[in-house]
Specification:
291 residues, mainly alpha, Zincin-like, 9 helices, 4 strands
Length: 291
Amino acid sequence: MKNQIKTLLLLGVLSALLIGIGGALGPGYLYGFTAFALLMNFIAYFFSDRIVLAMHRAHEVPFDAAPGLHRMVEELAQKAGIPKPRVFVIPQAQPNAFATGRNPEKGVVAVTQGIVDLLTERELKGVIAHELAHIKNRDILIATIAAGIAAAVTYLAHAAQFAAFFGGGRQDDEEGNGGWLQTLLLIVLAPIAATLVQLGISRSREFHADETGARLTGDPEALASALSKMERTAHHVPAHVEPATASLFIVNPLAGRNVMALFSTHPPMEERIRRLRGLELNGPRRLVHDF
């Protein structure tokens, strides 16, 4: 519940940024650029799953090729109350996974070959539960909304820059230096603030998926152990991943290459593991045995 409230608050901050910068430039800018941003993200929402899977050369795995993996996904999907997602494998050595699909009916779980080779059955089950939690919580929709608003803020800031150079918007001679200072702040600070808020939403959804996944399996330690293994390996095994898609993965595939943790799409791994190990579940913990 805490992460849900935080997400709503951050979406509210994004909306306030959009309204504020749009109001400063005039309603014509606000409506036009918001519509353009939402149109772009509407298209991404319906086709992003195909694009992302193709980018990572993921291929769908038939049941006969990986019956254990399919049964695991099916069992956890039933517990989560969602349709069984399609199962894909990414031919990469780095252990990682992500989920995509615009709604539970279109859900996809993709795992790398590296994660199948590295983790025990118990740990892999924790990871799959995390990814199904993203689908159950409709995080793809939330991320799309956040991206749409953030993009609109950025476009409006560019419009403000254009208006400042050519004397448009609300900047007229009577406003003097104060008006130019306001425009400068809008141009520089609004896109940065929107990006930070968007990243904050991404990190909040990761915490929420960790908790939801741990409750699905009844075994938080399994996911904590898996995250620890994957984090260590990510620093030594490179991944061929575009930075734009790094936020999809359960563990940052570009670990160790971020310039500033502030701009990371993932929460600190130590904090994720600490929260999982401190998670209190109702009733006795259900033990899941390894292979």
